[in-house]
Structure formats: structure tokens, C-alpha cells
Design brief:
heterodimer; A: 2 domains; 4 helices; 59% helix; B: alpha/beta; TIM Barrel; 9 helices; 15% strand; globular
Chain lengths: 92, 267
């Protein structure tokens, strides 16, 4: 099994790159006109979940933050695709 | 290293992809019936598609020394109209005795609707009637967690043997649900909407090497038919023993797929 230093050697630069991309994405949203929507809200909740995952691993916490937590099947599909963050007015 | 691609949509791929997969070590490709990027307008469209899966693709794969198997169903994206879905399901028995059919799949849910769930349950009954294994598609992105829970509940209600069912496209928030219930789990190396090689290996570390496989699910979207051999390379970087890599990319698929009477790895 690789140790922590091995993992840093393998993945630090890739994770650093992705982290800066996330920061630049948020800066881009700040800089441009108009309004954000439920995806931005979900993204921020996921960022918070990553930093404060509680008892579950961070990746699981992020995925759960970006999930629909309702339990019943919806009456009818209004779209075929998915957005990446829950939009409750569509899902219910 | 030899490997099995247990989930690929080759009808959407070029012949050059078959060649590249063969060179990379692929010995077997399994192709679930799926949504081809657009809704087909008639059951006849599915009849032609099932012929493509059972006749044309096995011949195309054989030119590169690859065995090609398939799974049959109407996928959940086209199951919203239950009447239409039942018309399509009525022609599936005409193809079930084809020598390369493994079972029923990829059935499941897309937007977690009442109709999708009903058609899913009817597919499960079809599999039980013909004593076939099942391959399950779980929904994308925000719909995956809820859909996986609905699917697992429906399977339990149907009294299906979980060892004959693989629930595909698991991620970190659903893998434990699936494996803990006794089902097989599939990890899909489709980075934008599913998981990366690094995350797939993380899941192996966290959930173990039993009852799990990995696939590319390469299709008409932004996807990579060489995702599995690229993940093999990643597993080497992560210092996984060669026998464990072989288990995940070869022995595990053989173990699950051998539950289908038609699957023969050396035939």
C-alpha cells in the first residue's frame, strides 16, 4: 500500500490544479452579470460538506450534498437528463 | 494484461475502438441494451437494435479476437411511456435464446418516476421467468442516491437472488448500500458524471475486492473505450498486487457473468 507521501507524489499536483479551477470557477461567477441558481447553492453546500463531512468520508459527503433526498417516485419525468444538483421544484 | 470490458456500448463506437481494445488486452466485451442518445419511435426500432446486438456486434468484435455478449431490455430513459415499453418488452423473448445473450439489462431508473419503476419491476419479473441474471443502471448525478434506494427496495420486494444482480454505476455514496445488501457492484470510469480511475481504486480500498467490477460504459458521449486498461495502469501506480488487479478486471467479471449459461470465456 502506498503511504501518505506516495499519495502526495501521485495526486497533489492534479488536486492542486482542480482546486485552483474551482476557485477560478467561483471567481468567474462572481465577476459576471445575472443570477446564480440551485446549482450554485448545491455547489456551496457540497464545498461545506467536504470541509465538514461528519462521520462519512468527504467524497461521500459531497455526493450526498448534491443528491435528491426525497424518497417517493415522482409522477412523471419532465426532462431526461440531470443537472448535478437537486432542483426540488422539478423533482417533486 | 488481459481484461474483460463488462459494460460498453459498442454500437456507438468505431471499429478502430475494437482494434485498440484488443491491442490493450480486452478479451470479452459485454454490451447492455441502452438509450442510443435519442428516443426510438417504434418497437421495430428496438427489433433492429436487438439484431445489431445479437448478430452484428459479435461478428464485428470477432474480427479482433474479442468475444461479444449482450444484455437485453428497454432502458429506463425510454420507459416513461409504459405502453410503448411493454410493446418493446414483448419482443425480447424472440431474442433471449440467441447464443450471446447474458440476461436482462441495463434496466433501472433514470428520473425515478412511477412509470420507470413499474417497467423496472416488470423487467425483473421477465428475468425471473427466464431465470436470467440482471444488470442494473442507476440514475445519474443528483438522482443516483434516491434511485439506488428505490431499486434496492424493489429487488428485495421481488425476492431476487442478489448474487445474480449487478448494480452498476455505483459511487462513494451508493457502493456500500449495494454491497451490504448482497448485490454485485459496478464502478463506471466515466469521469464527468460517474468516477475517475483514482476514485475507483479508492472504492476498492474502502469496500474491498469482492463482488465488484469496473467498466468504461463507453458510448456516444464523452467516454473512453480504454478506460479499464488505463485504470489498470493507475492500479499499478497505487502499488496494487498484480493478482488483485487481475481479480478485479478479469476474475470478478468471469465469476459474475458465468451465472449466465451462455457465457464462456474460452469458447
Amino acid at each position: 500500500m502506498p503511504n501518505k507521501e506516495d499519495i502526495l507524489d501521485l495526486y497533489f499536483m492534479d488536486a492542486r490544479c482542480k482546486l485552483i479551477d474551482i476557485a477560478a470557477f467561483l471567481d468567474r461567477l462572481d465577476r459576471h452579470e445575472g443570477n446564480t441558481d440551485f446549482r450554485y447553492e448545491g455547489f456551496n453546500q457540497a464545498l461545506n460538506a467536504m470541509q465538514n463531512p461528519g462521520a462519512v468520508p468527504r467524497a461521500q459527503a459531497v455526493l450526498e450534498a448534491l443528491s435528491d433526498h426525497t424518497e417517493e417516485p415522482i409522477p412523471k419525468a419532465t426532462i431526461q437528463g440531470a443537472f448535478g444538483a437537486p432542483r426540488l421544484e422539478i423533482n417533486n | 494484461m488481459p481484461y474483460i470490458e463488462p459494460h460498453a456500448h459498442m454500437v456507438s463506437r468505431t471499429t478502430a475502438d475494437y482494434e485498440a481494445m484488443a491491442i490493450a488486452g480486452c478479451e470479452v466485451i459485454c454490451e447492455p441494451a441502452f438509450w442510443a442518445g435519442f428516443d426510438r419511435s417504434s418497437p421495430q426500432g428496438f427489433h433492429d437494435y436487438y439484431r445489431q446486438l445479437t448478430e452484428y456486434e459479435p461478428a464485428r468484435a470477432a474480427k479482433f479476437g474479442i468475444k461479444h455478449y449482450c444484455w437485453l431490455c428497454i432502458n429506463p430513459k425510454e420507459a416513461e411511456d409504459a405502453g410503448f415499453a411493454r410493446e418493446v418488452m414483448a419482443i425480447i423473448p424472440d431474442f433471449i435464446d440467441a447464443p450471446t445473450v447474458l440476461g436482462i439489462g441495463e434496466i433501472g431508473l433514470n428520473k425515478n418516476t412511477v412509470s420507470e419503476l413499474k417497467i423496472f419491476e416488470e423487467h425483473v419479473e421477465l428475468a425471473k421467468k427466464y431465470d436470467l441474471p440482471i444488470l442494473i443502471h442507476t440514475p445519474h448525478l443528483e438522482d443516483k442516491l434516491k434511485g439506488t434506494k428505490l431499486i434496492l427496495d424493489a429487488l428485495k420486494n421481488a425476492n431476487v437472488d442478489p448474487s445474480r444482480v449487478i448494480v452498476d454505476h455505483v459511487e462513494e455514496h451508493t457502493a456500500g448500500l449495494v454491497l451490504d445488501a448482497g448485490f454485485w457492484a459496478g464502478m463506471t470510469l466515466y469521469p464527468e458524471s460517474k468516477c475517475t480511475p483514482a476514485r475507483a481504486i479508492d472504492m476498492l480500498e474502502n469496500f474491498g475486492m469482492e463482488n465488484i467490477w469496473m467498466n468504461s460504459a463507453c458510448d456516444w458521449g464523452v467516454s473512453d473505450p480504454l478506460a479499464v486498461p488505463k485504470c489498470i495502469q493507475e492500479m499499478k501506480k497505487r502499488q496494487l498486487a498484480k493478482d488483485l488487479v487481475h481479480k478485479v478486471v478479469y476474475e470478478n467479471p468471469v465469476k459474475f457473468l458465468s451465472q449466465s449459461k451462455n457465457f464462456k470465456v474460452d469458447g
